[in-house]
Amino acid sequence: MSKQGFDLGKASQAISQTGEGIPPLEKWNPDFCGDIDMRIARDGRWFYMGTPIGRQAMVNLFSRVLWLEEGRYFLKTPVEKVGIEVEDAPFLFTQLEQAEGESGPELIFVSTTGDRITAGPEQRLWVETCPQSGEPSPYLEVRFGMKGLIHRNLFYQLVEMAEPCAVDGREVLAIESCGERFILGALDD
User: 91-186 domain in CATH 3.30.565.10?
Assistant: First the structure.
């Protein structure tokens, strides 16, 4: 990976000047400046040049300018776009809140970077199964085509909340949020 003059401090300062919330990344078209040695591990930890980024505020700041394009992840500002490595999903959800909404129960997932995503028609929840181990990996749509991994402990909570039902002739465990049903797994496997 090349750094191409990337300065972590300058980048964080430039990002903080974009204001609060998620900036309009879809409107920015900066030049690609190369890949940097930044990685988001499957457990949600961020690394720069092999060292964990210890300041959570900086991680939260960088998470706001994450961009997925043609299967690759980038940090994107109005003036530059740099490639980074993501081991699985760039977000990790570790907390769950429940609310009652217009369409019934709502499941609100909170990531380690402070993102609050309500599962529903806009942000789908799904489970992938590892073909080698058979282990489930639950995900939630976040933004710009990116997904977040739901932490295993949180997945166990969802399973406890789930209700058995029949879908396409199979018994499955499912949960509901914002009027949508999300299947966590089959009961007859």
Answer: no
